[in-house]
């Protein structure tokens, strides 16, 4: 990579946009689709089960990450998957008026998950290949902020827009428009990154499928040979354990009638709370979290980050107990939870980059770690609908608080293989 290319492709020009593109399909499936199906008459149990199950590719993505090393550049896969994801979202929109809309749309969203998880592998590969360790720490807050902005746009702005459209044109037409917007945004991001995204390194010497299988075996073997790997796996699974329960049910709890233990909010009100108050808290929390780690080091801050990430889930228990009618009280609760989420999440991402990924297969091992992390999120998410239907929202969110305890213990005891190192390394081509 020439000096001119580095200047043309400053991290600020591509990190926010590419991590926004990473977050959008994930949050569309994890949150926005849940509200869509809720409004279209699907039960909480069905919603939580299927919208969690189709997220399995984010857990299994390490299985095909070595294959991505065989062809072209990491940028190629980032752009290609963004374009594919955009097209599939438009097909989701077209499936909603059909009689068996749930079956067809879930199948298409599963394709989105496959494309989105592949996009994540290549995106993280670009980030790890292009940036030095100092820049990785510096821009981890930007990365987290951009990902979280996608969460707010998806769970906030788009949901608010859907709610307003529902009042005028009906639920089906409203969500057809919103799913089409997802598609158009992803297509535009793909076109933007054709020019602005750095290559992130060329294909490796792996040229055949057999060599790819051998490489995958070597990736798996060397991953589990890493020092402290069992501790690290336990940590990344447990860190998001409570979130896995809470994130799927929270918007359904906001939407549910007060007689059912919910808050009785409209779709547009939910979008407004997430899209305005939550957005600011998310971005501020992510940026401050990144700079906090950069200033003090990950090892010294990890337990604090885990506390800030997990403790704010108490707001949902309080909302379930008191069922306030004021949208301002609900907004304050969302601000606290989203600030903590943004602030604490960057610590987990940096831990995987700096404690698990380093070595011969940096991109593949990071993909493996993030896949395991998503498994820790997916399993409680799948069970959340059944559990909330079984015990009600009040007891469910008390359980969420209990589920934070393993994460805090893991953050306190997890060993570090590498010390915090701010020395720059040579930037990869």
Provide a quick synopsis of the model.
It is built from 17 helices and no strands.
SSE diagram, text form:
Elements: H1 3-8, H2 11-39, H3 44-53, H4 57-60, H5 65-68, H6 74-95, H7 101-130, H8 133-169, H9 171-196, H10 209-224, H11 229-239, H12 241-255, H13 267-296, H14 298-310, H15 314-322, H16 327-356, H17 362-413
Helix pairs in contact: 2-3, 2-7, 2-8, 2-9, 2-12, 3-17, 6-7, 6-9, 7-17, 8-9, 8-13, 8-16, 11-16, 11-17, 12-17, 13-14, 13-16, 14-16, 14-17, 15-16, 15-17, 16-17
Largest sheet data: none
Evaluate the radius of gyration. Answer: 21 Å
The parts where pLDDT drops under 50 for at least 5 residues are: 1-7, 422-429
Query: What is the β-strand count?
Result: 0
CATH fold node name:
Growth Hormone, Chain: A
What order do the helices and strands follow?
HHHHHHHHHHHHHHHHH
User: What is the count of structural domains?
Assistant: 1
**Average pLDDT:** 85
Helix content: over 70%
Number of helices: 17
Identify the CATH class: Mainly Alpha
Instruction: Give the overall form.
Output: globular
Amino- and carboxy-terminal Cα gap? 5 Å
- Strand coverage percent: under 5%
Which class best fits the helix and strand makeup?
Answer: mainly alpha
**CATH architectural name:** Up-down Bundle
State the fourth-level CATH superfamily.
MFS general substrate transporter like domains
